[in-house]
Amino acid sequence: MRVSYNPGYVADIPDDHVFPMKKFSGLHAYLIANRVIKEEEVVAPSMVDFSNLITAHTSRYARAIWDGTLTHKEERRMGLPWSKSLAIRSRLAVQGTINAGLMALQDGLAGNLAGGTHHSMPDHGEGFCVYNDVAVAIRVLQHSKWASKILVVDCDVHQGNGTAHIFANDPDVYTFSIHGEKNYPFKKPPSDLDVGLPDKTGDPDYHKALIDALDKVLSEFEPDLVFYLGGIDPLAADHFGRLSLTLAGLRERERIVIETITQKNYPLVLLLSGGYAPTLQDTVKAHAQMYEVAKEMGF
Prior knowledge:
HDACs, 8 strands, alpha/beta
């Protein structure tokens, strides 16, 4: 199971910031130590080219991130303090998702030990999302003819507003989001399918809603490639989640998605998206489950 990872995924942010930046290096170390992935399966991305970034973002915004010329309002909306290391990590992570898409098309399944930054819009970042890696990857793969019809399965607890907005008028991209209905973002541009769940939704109801939705999606759309945003923030203990999944319930979610997609022989990309568990160790272990499940299934 090949995955994208670069030590540059960890940017410099204040230690007291709520975003768990060290989860990226922590997850890489955990997966290697537990033999879920091998060192030789880790493919280090370079920084994405600006010509690829501007397939989903405006040239002004793409350059403002790199040059450090965001306004104070834009930086505050993004939720992360600008630094050159943040600009570098953002470009690395986008290329990591592009690479994971190519590897999945070749191998059947691949991942990026980052990615899923689904709140980023064409001309601004928000919700701890700088560039929209999935949107850029989709555009690059479409333009290069590697894939045409692409499905986004977004199980982050927050609706994928940026991705929904970017692909609102693209019939070749199907966006599906299952999320907390009353949670951020409060303005939710419609995905092709949105499943909004009430606060405190637990394992059984979540799993049923997910299975029913995937059945609907795959009856309507036959993709060349699937991007899975496996945010761990539906966990009951998450700082921002408001849903009530157990860790075992989250693992079952991973099994449902990976099994449903791969049994139909659709290439699948695994991406982290959000997660704010009580400790860094909790966050890493929860994110690791999708890769552990994929490994158990023979990838």
